[in-house]
Amino acid sequence: MTIKEAQEAVDSWIKEYGVRYFSELTNMACLTEEVGELARIMARRYGDQSFKEGESHDPSEEMADILWVLICLANQTGVDLTEALQKSFEKKTMRDKNRHKNNPKLKA
């Protein structure tokens, strides 16, 4: 599935099952909540905290939820995520093409 196809699929799902998009502010709060849920899993899986009984250990569901809400926000605000990601690659390449290669902290 391409990013464009994902944006179209989310929009179709919202129109068929979701009644309407939540407001942009509600979706921003939902995005923040989902990122927090991913952070909880990462802190327990890779950090110093331990899992509580019954807690999910799998970050994939939270990552998918983050992507879903981000796509909703993009659709609501008229952002073409394919185009935005391409521009981000260009920006990062111009800015960082030598920066990371020359960073001694990143040497193996």
Automatic annotation (TrEMBL):
<dbReference type="GO" id="GO:0016787">
    <property type="term" value="F:hydrolase activity"/>
</dbReference>
<dbReference type="InterPro" id="IPR047046">
    <property type="entry name" value="YpjD/YvdC"/>
</dbReference>
<dbReference type="InterPro" id="IPR004518">
    <property type="entry name" value="MazG-like_dom"/>
</dbReference>
<keyword id="KW-0378">Hydrolase</keyword>
<feature type="domain" description="NTP pyrophosphohydrolase MazG-like">
    <location>
        <begin position="23"/>
        <end position="99"/>
    </location>
</feature>
<dbReference type="Pfam" id="PF03819">
    <property type="entry name" value="MazG"/>
</dbReference>
<dbReference type="InterPro" id="IPR012359">
    <property type="entry name" value="MazG-related_YpjD"/>
</dbReference>
<protein>
    <submittedName>
        <fullName>MazG nucleotide pyrophosphohydrolase domain protein</fullName>
    </submittedName>
</protein>
